[in-house]
Design brief:
single chain, 5 strands, globular
Length: 102
């Protein structure tokens, strides 16, 4: 199953595609220097295939490359970061307590 994660700034979200189908997305609000993830959805027919994890990893890798900080308001994004310590540094140190991270 070939997947691709891409930023869709017109809709303020990252999409995860399987072939030509959008399988899910994570919605964000962007401000100077920071991106706040608000909500994540994976289509019912795509659940259980690791697409949520692929989506968040791809989005956070892109955010890191852009030099942005992350505010994980979305519970899925927050729990994903909790399970992947190497992404906690994207959340500003002063905000980690708010999100119960590191």
């Amino acid at each position: 199953m070939e997947t691709a994660v891409s930023d869709n700034p017109a809709l303020h979200r990252y999409d995860v595609a399987v072939g030509d189908d959008i399988a899910g997305f994570t919605v964000y609000e962007r401000r100077p220097g920071v991106i706040a993830f608000m909500h994540t959805e994976i289509g019912d027919e795509w659940e259980g295939r690791g697409l949520g994890s692929a989506l968040i990893r791809g989005a956070l890798d892109d955010v890191r490359a852009k030099g942005l900080a992350v505010l994980p308001y979305c519970p899925f994004v927050r729990s994903w970061i909790e399970r992947h310590d190497d992404y906690v540094d994207l959340v500003p140190a002063e905000a980690r307590a708010q999100f119960r991270l590191g």
